[in-house]
């Protein structure tokens, strides 16, 4: 048996590495198949605005664009000195800047879009203040793990460009002369290369076309994309064929300098971050321009011109590649699985199913096949190959711009979202189908399928259609909104039905699980309980199983030498300062602006803290909301302007740069408070990590009450991020909290973390999946009724009872059969009719027992007993239904003694039936659920009645006849209808060892019931009786028990099946004749 784990990204990915001296990469010069990383553009901006003497970071030889690959070896060695662009800043350099002198924390005086944004801390700290350039001097910092970089050489021929040249011309000149520079290809992995001289190359993905139709012709789209890169290369060839151009240093058009692109972001252990932090070239869908040479074309040699028409397929067919750990995907999931496997908590083999996380269209088929085989054979990973258009349309458009905001209570309302919603749904369906097909192809009998997160909401149902008996679980790592929000999705029903294909659905909190159940109840009219959803004969288990971390493993890492060194640097940098640390994604949901407003209010109301407190805000991810960005930075600028000193540390250090894990642990360990206040979120494991790191300081955690973590972490200071004043007061409370209180709160948090760690999440989730599957298997195992077996058991028994659920008026044949059975055995008929109706229908069958209104009233030996406890709720429910009738003309309700039936078969507006009835069910179950009143749908009729009446009636009948004999003169003294108590008042369990019968104040029967037969079509009324009889047999209270269902029943507690009621009647007639 294998545990199949399906998530969007595999934990491994291929990495193409090209030798820096290889000249075969010239085929892709200006093909525009790879974008220049946004970091390079930012470095250019910094050099242009800064002094030529500012420190630079030569490229380290890790990443290169395919534009660079076009230069020949001779070109690379033609100049003695070469301008070097800064590459991505190393983590050591970043922390060196972070721990530099105080002036580095100044924010821009007039923040504008792009001014404060930096892909490294150095760029942020070097922003000019009051017209002067700020430096991040390293002299005051002790020895750091990284040496200080050298400035640009004074004889660099391009140095003057930094002061004088137009930015686009500077970009072109640099690209022409980047013989030894190496650009970071878009989407390039940040994993270290095994070869210091190698270059990581990743193909550029294709763009999603502008499609307005609801139905997309995928074949046509693919053909369009296959031709997308040809025009630019053909135009280049035509230019060069007309003769050698005049010498020029301008290889690229001026558009090159203005093109901006997204870059890959490292995955995170944080549940919320990792769930929405996988941006790479696969997801980027920016408009791009073809690089067309100007002013005479290229000045390079003939080799480039002759090979310009070759495609990237040829290059990627030659470049060596290897499999490396992927930095994309859900870090919490990967860490939990790998830890469980290492500690043998998961003993079965584990197989991952997902995409490789890089564009695949430009990789040759034979190379893709080899990658897939290597991942399959050596890494137990089954690869889903989706074309770039499908992946980007599904992920970037539908997941990120429609699903993600809606799940976090941010309903998309901009026109762009509406425009692509329909065709992005088609991409989403296609991607989910690819995952389902792959899972089905690798599945073997007995495997467990565990599907993860909002990218794959349709996969459970798709797999279920192909594998009806498979063991399927699903876990949603983000929040699930209320039904009022979720119903805004156009594809709401399809998504819910997709999830209900699983046996078990896990959520981070009970609140999210309840929201899902209520939404299913409202939109699909599923019958729900606290932990179950019943839909189309299936029962799906729905529970909360919060994700966690390994506290002891994380805590042990605090003693690593590297972490200790960074902690010392941080203490030296901020002596006598109180640090408030925050780490968030850069988006509106994280509440960054409200956090800054609360901090601003705190400082204004407590000015004595201006020189004592520093808030370090680390943001990760590619921000796209320029309005939110500007608003946040305006607040940051106002806060920093409050500082009375321009030479000391400013109150806010705002960094758009993530840390290495060791640095992150060090900063968390040195924090005097940690603040997490998203407006809505799932399980933010950053909180758990902080508490694990704060063993020495026991610093308080300020946590938004709207996160999933707030339901788990005891001891955190819960805040409402919308209440600016209350948050500011909480900041002061956290900083002034006594040591003993901090210690107590920290212990509570640690206890919560240990109790809900990653091992517990894995173990609980897999157990719940298995239990739900066993339960479903038990219900779905239906055997054809064996006539010989039931006859044998019937004849071997001495005291028999029969329960029949007959919903229609009985035929003469049925009445005759019931008459014969009732003359010799105990026989009861159950349905929803009233007492008077049942008596009129069956008055010709003497001795027949009746169970009216689904068991609310029971007639035994001619006396009616009341099973229902109360009926005073009916008037209140009628008021609700009156309102629904006004909204749904043609609907009506019928009131019985213990129930209400709401009919909609004659309603005029059929399209509104589901919505109105769903609202009624949700409304009634919410208000009256605590009183045991339940609304449900059966055969398109809504019933409102007390819970468990049928099974309570059956228990009462069994108890009654086990205490009396059929021909006995002694019987239980009945209580008249007008004052009859419920069975709970008729006695308590006896003490003779059986423990399952009512006590009656009468002489015991000579024989207990030893044969019971329950039959009827599957329904919410009859299923509990099926379950009761099977339980009685298992406990030994009944010797023979038959639960027989007829009609279509895909999931039932019944163990035997017949084709219909007529067949059953014939079998019973035969049995009765042979027993006489």
Automatic annotation (TrEMBL):
The keyword Phosphoprotein applies. Residues 968-984 have a biased composition (Low complexity). One of its GO terms (cellular component) is cytosol. GO terms for biological process: trehalose biosynthetic process. Residues 50-82, 190-208 have a biased composition (Polar residues). It is found in: Cytoplasm. One of its GO terms (molecular function) is alpha,alpha-trehalose-phosphate synthase (UDP-forming) activity. It holds the Pfam family Glyco_transf_20. PANTHER family: TREHALOSE SYNTHASE COMPLEX REGULATORY SUBUNIT TPS3-RELATED, TREHALOSE-6-PHOSPHATE SYNTHASE. This is Uncharacterized protein. It comes from Zygosaccharomyces mellis. The lineage of its organism: Eukaryota, Fungi, Dikarya, Ascomycota, Saccharomycotina.
């Amino acid at each position: 048996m294998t545990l199949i784990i399906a998530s969007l990204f595999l934990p491994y990915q291929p990495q193409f590495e090209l030798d820096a001296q290889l000249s075969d990469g010239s085929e892709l010069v200006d093909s525009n198949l790879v974008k220049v990383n946004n970091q390079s553009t930012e470095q250019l901006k910094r050099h242009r605005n800064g002094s030529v003497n500012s420190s630079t970071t030569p490229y380290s030889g890790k990443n290169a664009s395919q534009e660079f690959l076009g230069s020949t070896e001779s070109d690379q060695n033609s100049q003695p000195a070469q301008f070097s662009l800064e590459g991505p800043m190393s983590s050591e350099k970043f922390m060196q800047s972070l721990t530099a002198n105080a002036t580095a924390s100044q924010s821009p005086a007039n923040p504008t879009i792009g001014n404060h944004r930096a892909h490294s801390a150095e760029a942020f700290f070097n922003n000019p203040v009051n017209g002067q350039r700020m430096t991040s001097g390293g002299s005051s910092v002790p020895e750091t793990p990284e040496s200080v970089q050298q400035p640009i050489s004074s004889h660099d021929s391009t140095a003057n460009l930094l002061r004088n040249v137009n930015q686009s011309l500077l970009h072109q000149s640099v690209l022409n002369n980047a013989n030894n520079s190496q650009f970071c290809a878009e989407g390039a992995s940040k994993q270290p290369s095994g070869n210091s001289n190698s270059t990581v190359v990743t193909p550029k993905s294709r763009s999603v076309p502008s499609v307005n139709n609801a139905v997309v012709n995928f074949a046509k789209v693919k053909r369009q994309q296959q031709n997308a890169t040809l025009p630019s290369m053909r135009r280049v060839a035509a230019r060069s064929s007309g003769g050698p151009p005049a010498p020029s240093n301008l290889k690229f058009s001026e558009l090159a300098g203005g093109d901006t692109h997204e870059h890959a972001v490292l995955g995170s252990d944080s549940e919320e971050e990792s769930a929405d932090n996988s941006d790479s070239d696969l997801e980027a869908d920016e408009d791009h321009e073809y690089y067309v040479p100007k002013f005479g074309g290229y000045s390079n040699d003939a080799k480039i011109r002759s090979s310009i028409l070759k495609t990237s397929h040829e290059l990627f067919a030659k470049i060596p590649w290897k499999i490396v750990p992927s930095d994309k995907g859900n870090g919490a999931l990967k860490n939990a699985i790998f830890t469980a496997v290492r500690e043998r908590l998961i003993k079965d083999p584990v197989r991952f199913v997902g995409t490789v996380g890089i564009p695949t269209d430009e990789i040759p088929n034979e190379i893709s096949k080899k990658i897939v085989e290597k991942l399959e054979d050596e890494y137990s990973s089954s690869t889903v190959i989706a074309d770039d258009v499908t992946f980007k349309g599904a992920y970037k458009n539908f997941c990120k711009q429609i699903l993600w905001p809606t799940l976090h209570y941010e309903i998309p309302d901009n026109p762009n979202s509406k425009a692509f919603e329909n065709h992005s749904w088609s991409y989403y369906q296609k991607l989910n189908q690819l995952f389902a097909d792959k899972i089905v192809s690798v599945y073997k009998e007995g495997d467990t399928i565990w599907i993860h997160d909002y990218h794959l909401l349709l996969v459970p149902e798709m797999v279920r259609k192909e594998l009806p008996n498979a063991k399927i679980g699903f876990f949603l790592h983000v929040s699930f909104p209320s039904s009022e929000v979720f119903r805004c999705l156009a594809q709401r029903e399809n998504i819910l039905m997709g999830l209900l294909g699983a046996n078990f659905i896990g959520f981070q909190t009970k609140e999210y699980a309840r929201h899902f159940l209520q939404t299913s109840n409202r939109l699909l009219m599923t019958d729900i309980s606290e932990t179950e959803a019943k839909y189309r004969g299936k029962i799906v288990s729905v529970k909360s199983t919060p994700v966690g971390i390994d506290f002891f493993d994380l805590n042990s890492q605090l003693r690593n030498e590297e972490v200790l060194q960074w902690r010392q640097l941080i203490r030296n940098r901020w002596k006598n300062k109180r640090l408030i640390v925050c780490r968030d994604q850069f988006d509106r949901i994280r509440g960054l602006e409200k956090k800054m407003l609360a901090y601003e209010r705190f400082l204004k109301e407590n000015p004595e803290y201006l020189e004592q407190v520093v808030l370090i805000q680390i943001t990760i991810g590619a921000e796209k909301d320029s309005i939110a960005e500007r608003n946040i930075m305006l607040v940051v600028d106002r806060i920093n302007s409050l500082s009375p000193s321009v030479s000391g540390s400013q109150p806010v250090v705002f960094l758009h740069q993530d840390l290495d894990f060791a640095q992150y642990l060090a900063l968390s360990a040195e924090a005097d408070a940690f603040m997490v206040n998203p407006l809505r979120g799932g399980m933010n494991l950053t909180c758990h990590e902080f508490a694990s790191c704060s063993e020495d300081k026991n610093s308080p955690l300020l946590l938004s009450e709207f996160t999933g973590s707030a339901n788990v972490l005891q001891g955190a200071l819960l805040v409402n991020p919308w209440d600016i004043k209350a948050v500011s007061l909480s900041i002061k409370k956290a900083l002034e909290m006594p040591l003993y209180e901090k210690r107590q709160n920290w212990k509570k948090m640690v206890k919560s973390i240990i109790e809900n760690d990653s091992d517990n999440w894995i173990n609980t989730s897999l157990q719940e999946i298995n239990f739900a599957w066993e339960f479903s298997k038990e219900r779905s195992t239906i055997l054809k009724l064996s006539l010989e077996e039931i006859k044998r058991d019937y004849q071997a028994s001495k005291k028999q009872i029969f329960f029949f659920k007959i919903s229609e008026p009985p035929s003469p044949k049925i009445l005759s059969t019931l008459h014969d059975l009732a003359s010799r055995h105990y026989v009861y008929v159950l349905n929803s009719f009233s007492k008077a109706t049942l008596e009129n229908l069956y008055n010709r069958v003497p001795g027949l027992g009746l169970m009216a209104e689904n068991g609310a009233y029971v007639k035994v030996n001619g006396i009616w007993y009341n099973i229902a406890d109360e009926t005073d709720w009916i008037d209140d429910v009628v008021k609700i239904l009156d309102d629904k009738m006004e909204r749904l003309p043609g609907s009506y309700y019928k009131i019985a003694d213990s129930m209400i039936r709401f009919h909609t078969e004659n309603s005029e507006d059929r399209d509104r039936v589901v919505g109105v009835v769903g609202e009624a069910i949700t409304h009634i179950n919410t208000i009256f659920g605590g009183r045991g009143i339940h609304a449900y749908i059966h055969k398109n009729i809504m019933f409102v009645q007390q819970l468990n009446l049928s099974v309570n009636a059956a228990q009462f009948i069994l108890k009654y006849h086990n205490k009396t004999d059929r021909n006995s003169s002694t019987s239980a003294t009945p209580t008249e209808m007008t004052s009859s108590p419920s069975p709970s008042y008729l006695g308590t369990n006896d003490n003779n060892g059986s423990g399952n019968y009512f006590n009656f104040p009468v002489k015991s029967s000579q024989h207990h019931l030893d044969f019971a037969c329950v039959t009827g079509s599957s329904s919410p009324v009859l299923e509990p009786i099926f379950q009761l009889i099977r339980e009685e047999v298992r406990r030994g209270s009944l010797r023979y028990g038959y639960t027989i269902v007829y009609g279509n029943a895909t999931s039932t507690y019944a163990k035997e099946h017949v084709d219909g009621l007529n067949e059953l009647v014939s079998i019973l007639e035969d049995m009765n004749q042979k027993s006489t």
